[in-house]
Structure formats: structure tokens, C-alpha cells
Specification:
Layout: H1 2-7, H2 11-33, H3 35-42, H4 46-74, H5 76-95, H6 100-114, H7 116-128, H8 135-145, H9 151-164, H10 168-185, H11 195-199, H12 203-222, H13 233-254, H14 268-297, H15 299-327
Helix pairs in contact: 2-7, 2-9, 2-10, 3-4, 4-5, 4-6, 4-7, 4-12, 5-6, 5-7, 5-10, 7-8, 12-13
């Protein structure tokens, strides 16, 4: 009986992690959909406000790459609690942001902690459930929790902005993440992790990889708004990021305790998941760019249309007046 209990999957931890995966998947999309309202609330142009989403994506890269080392070093339950608590505090910082620079720093932390939430669910599924004994069902639940609720993101974001203002977008995230953090503190409490493995992790290559991927992601997100090669720093960031990633990969191949096992990329299912994730994030980025372009272009044609209509009515009234005078 004791052996069965020890080998049984941690259902409470899996349920908590699935809730976190929903939070970490829906809320970033909700902010993307309502970036124009954030722009107006901070009194900055839409191009500048788009950095709010870019910094969240860059932060998520840092958090996702570091999460496995934290899970091995301090335990999966503590890593979940740390991510949840950080997400709450970062959400509060975003809600209280008085200016764009404050918001950018807060959103970087928001992305770093928020990106860990879905990852921890997948990590629990892969480490707690065995193939043929719940892993397939766990992966299906992961896919459901990170995709099924996207449809409510726009509806929820629009409702919050209309009824409570743009800051409520982040207050709601802080409130919603509190139950996750409390529940995470009570699961997997006997799992202590290996502090030695945490201290000896390949943090140097992690920093290099995070900088490289973050630079490339920043350039890809902002390049469209700066006409790619016309801004020297866009190709510069892409080139510099590629160099950093190359050195990081070479370092991880030689490291005794690499932060990321490169052999995992040889698995077709894992590689396909990465490709699909990149496609989805690219679609979100393109949607954000389209919304920004529409927001910039809409006032001018609208104003021009009003002026043209007014001029047309004035000309018609003048012609009618002249016709009336000639008849007299």
C-alpha cells in the first residue's frame, strides 16, 4: 500500500498546475488584445505601448529557460509557489505602473514568472506520469488548458476595460493567481530538490542563451515598426542574438550539468511542439502589429472623410443658393 501511494501521481499538484497553465496562457493574450487601452491609459503612442507586450515575451524566455533548474534545485512545488507569488507581485506592479518605463520593467518580471506557469504543468506531466499510464491524458489536458480558453481572452479583456478601466486587466491577474500560489505551497511539500545541483547548474550559458533569444525576439517584435534594415539596431540585435545563442549551445554541449539537455530537440514530438508554439506567437505578434497599424491609420481617413463630406455639403449648398438667385 505504501509503495502504491508513493508511486501514485500527484493529482493535487497536477490540478494546481493545470489552473496555472490556464492563467499563463489566457492573460498574455488578453493584454495583447487590449494594448490600445493600455496605450491610452499610459498616455503613450501605440508604437511605444507595443513594447509592453514585447517585454513580456522577452521575460518569458528567461523564466522558461530557468524553471527546470529551479525545479531540480528547490523542488517542483516550491518552484510553482515561487512562480505564482512572483506573478502576483508583478501583476500588482503592472496595475500600479505610473509610466511606461515602470510598466516595461514590471512586464518583464510578469513574463518571467508567467511563462513558468504552463511549463510547470508540462514538467509535472512528463515527470510524474508514465507512458501508457496517464501521460497521454496529461498531455491532452495540457494542450486543452493552454488553448481552449483563448477564446475568452478578448471577451474578458474588453469587459474589464469597459467596466473597470485598463488597470483592472492586471488586478484581476493578481487576484486570480493568489489561489494558485496558496495551493502550490501545499503540494509536493516533501520534495526538497537538490541545492547542489542548483548551485552547479550551467548559469553562464543560461544567461548567454537568454540574452541571445531575448535579443532576437525583441528584434522580430519591433522590427516591423522600425522598417527592419532602416533601423541599424534591428539586424544588429538579430546578428548579436544569433552569436550569443551559438556560443550558449556550444557551451551546453561541453557542460557537465547543462541547463538544457540538447538531446530533447531530437524528439520529433518536442520539436513539433516548439514549431507550433512559434507559429502561434508569430500570429499574435502579427495581430498586434495589425491592430497598431489600424489604430494609427483610422483617425486620419475618418477625419479626412468628415472634411470631404463637409466640403461636399458646402459646395452643394452654394450651388443651390446660386441657382435660387438666378431664378429670381
Amino acid at each position: 500500500m505504501a509503495g502504491n501511494a508513493a508511486n501514485s501521481p500527484p493529482l493535487a499538484a497536477l490540478a494546481t498546475a493545470s489552473y496555472g497553465a490556464i492563467l499563463g496562457s489566457v492573460f498574455p493574450v488578453m493584454t495583447v488584445m487590449t494594448i490600445a487601452d493600455v496605450s491610452g491609459g499610459l498616455s503613450v503612442p501605440i508604437d511605444s505601448a507595443a513594447l509592453v507586450n514585447t517585454m513580456q515575451n522577452v521575460g518569458s524566455v528567461v523564466g522558461i529557460l530557468a524553471a527546470p533548474a529551479f525545479a531540480a534545485g528547490i523542488g517542483r512545488g516550491r518552484t510553482m509557489a515561487l512562480a505564482g507569488g512572483g506573478f502576483v507581485l508583478a501583476s500588482v506592479a503592472c496595475a500600479c505602473a505610473p509610466s511606461l518605463p515602470w510598466m516595461l520593467v514590471a512586464r518583464f518580471a510578469h513574463g518571467a514568472f508567467g511563462g513558468v506557469l504552463p511549463l510547470m504543468f508540462m514538467l509535472l506531466v512528463m515527470t510524474s506520469l508514465k507512458p501508457g499510464s496517464g501521460r497521454f491524458e496529461g498531455m491532452a489536458l495540457f494542450a486543452t488548458s493552454t488553448s481552449l480558453f483563448f477564446g475568452i481572452a478578448a471577451l474578458l479583456g474588453g469587459f474589464l476595460v469597459d467596466q473597470l478601466g485598463w488597470r483592472s486587466l492586471f488586478w484581476v491577474q493578481a487576484i486570480a493567481a493568489l489561489p494558485y500560489t496558496i495551493a502550490a505551497l501545499s503540494v509536493l511539500r516533501t520534495e526538497r530538490g537538490d541545492p547542489l545541483a542548483f548551485r552547479k547548474a550551467d548559469w553562464a550559458d543560461h544567461a548567454l542563451l537568454s540574452v541571445g533569444i531575448g535579443a532576437i525576439l525583441f528584434a522580430l517584435s519591433e522590427g516591423e515598426r522600425h522598417f527592419w534594415s532602416e533601423a541599424w539596431w534591428v539586424p544588429g540585435l538579430i546578428l548579436g542574438g544569433a552569436i550569443c545563442v551559438s556560443f550558449a549551445v556550444a557551451g551546453m554541449a561541453r557542460a557537465a550539468r547543462p541547463l538544457l539537455m540538447l538531446s530533447v530537440f531530437r524528439r520529433p514530438t518536442f520539436s513539433l511542439a516548439i514549431v507550433l508554439s512559434l507559429v502561434f506567437r508569430s500570429r499574435l505578434a502579427l495581430r498586434d502589429l495589425h491592430r497598431a497599424a489600424v489604430s494609427r491609420a483610422a483617425p486620419e481617413p475618418a477625419a479626412g472623410g468628415v472634411r470631404e463630406t463637409a466640403d461636399g455639403h458646402a459646395a452643394l449648398d452654394g450651388a443651390r443658393a446660386r441657382r435660387g438667385v438666378s431664378r429670381r
